[in-house]
Amino acid sequence: MSPRPAIRPGGRSARVQQSVHTAVRELQAEGGDLTVPRIALRAGVTPSTIYRRWGDLQELLADVAVERLRPETPPADLGNLREDLEHWATDFLEEMSSPPGRSYIRDALAGDPDGGNAGQCSAYAVEQVETILRRAAGRGEHVPATDTVMDHVVAPMMYRILFRPGPLDARYARDLVATVFYRLMPLP
Amino acid sequence: MSPRPAIRPGGRSARVQQSVHTAVRELQAEGGDLTVPRIALRAGVTPSTIYRRWGDLQELLADVAVERLRPETPPADLGNLREDLEHWATDFLEEMSSPPGRSYIRDALAGDPDGGNAGQCSAYAVEQVETILRRAAGRGEHVPATDTVMDHVVAPMMYRILFRPGPLDARYARDLVATVFYRLMPLP
Questions:
Q1: Which Gene3D superfamilies match (chains A, B) (predicted)?
Q2: What is the mean pLDDT of residues B121-132?
């Protein structure tokens, strides 16, 4: 991610960020052409404020996309690891494979010469998976490594979303979780 | 992929495609700004020829990227499935994680509202994997399903390349192949 000025919550910088992000989301929802002048007008800032802060339209869209992909709540706690992982994976697949999900992933990857925005998306997933695994370990359950879940549950879902167009259903997510449970668990 | 006129090999359409692709690759290698007028000038065609055929710069870059990602030779035949898969996976990882590989993948994903270009990249990988599996089955070896290799070898490599910036080495590719061999083989 490009270095950005530190944002003081409630400061002018935070207010600019919020109003520009809101303007982008509104214009996206309206389906019109996205241009820096239109976004600036809607946000009540000058185009040069946007260029100074985000560099160009693509980086701004990537920033908005990463923000949209940030999970809003911790993963549900259903009382056991298998169900927690299944629930999280089916939700993740549904969200990421929806038309808005796909377009956010695309935006995050596009405005990203150094991989920072995409890295942030994956960091969100790692965080959610680690929450699930930590809770399960706390209940005394046997747990796989975080990377096993990332490589064999998250990666196959994202690869299919991006590279293998076709229908994807909850059963696919559950099958990947079952593969981790029945094939890829470390020995106790 | 957008519908394109069928290309008669040796016809004018094929010559235009070749000279435009060559112009893009030369300009990319020189590291200059890529614009449709510059590409047209180098290729000896008019800009409107490019717009008519490819729609816009992003779609043209995606088309060139997919062409660059097309494997030039069938996978090496080392006499057994394990070595064939290891060899192919380490080559694939090295190529795709190189700076040009990453930028082709990015281009293929960017100019791709309907997922067709990215689908073509994945179709190339499926084809290579199927060649390896078919050869092994012909030798009487026990083989995994194509989708097992796509989901648990190809997908984790591509996910790390795109979403988890960091060093990736041949050992990672070989470990994924070992996981398929020791954990994910179907019963004979």
A1: Homeodomain-like, Tetracycline Repressor, domain 2
A2: 96
Separation CA A146–CA A131 (nearest Å): 10
Task: Give the one of B154, B155, B162 whose C-beta lies nearest to A109's C-beta.
Answer: B162
Assign B109 a pLDDT band (cuts: 50, 70, 90).
confident
Q: Which CATH number fits domain B70-183: 1.10.357.10, 3.30.360.10, 3.40.80.10, 3.40.30.10?
A: 1.10.357.10
CATH superfamily, region A69-183: Tetracycline Repressor, domain 2 (1.10.357.10)
Find the CB nearest B110 among A110, A118, A164.
A110
Architecture of domain B12-55: Orthogonal Bundle (1.10)
User: Is the pLDDT assigned to residue B186 strictly greater than 60?
Assistant: yes
pLDDT digits (tens, 9 = 90+) for B53-94: 999 898 899 999 999 899 989 999 999 999 999 999 999 999
Residues of A in contact with B62 (CB under 8 A): none
Q: How many residues does chain A have?
A: 188
CB contact under 8 A, A163 and B114: no
Low-confidence ranges of chain A (pLDDT < 70): 1-10, 112-113
Question: In angstroms, rounded to a whole number, what is the distance separating the alpha carbons of residues B133 and B130?
Answer: 5
How many beta-carbon contacts under 8 Å exist across A and B? 86
B159–A152 CB contact, under 8 Å: no
**Residue B8: predicted pLDDT:** 57
Residue B7: per-residue pLDDT: 57
Neighbours of B64 (CB within 10 A): 24
The answer to whether the CB of A85 falls within 8 A of the CB of A153 is yes
The domain spans of chain A are: 12-55, 69-183
Whether residue A155 and residue B150 make contact (CB cut-off 8 A), yes or no, is: no
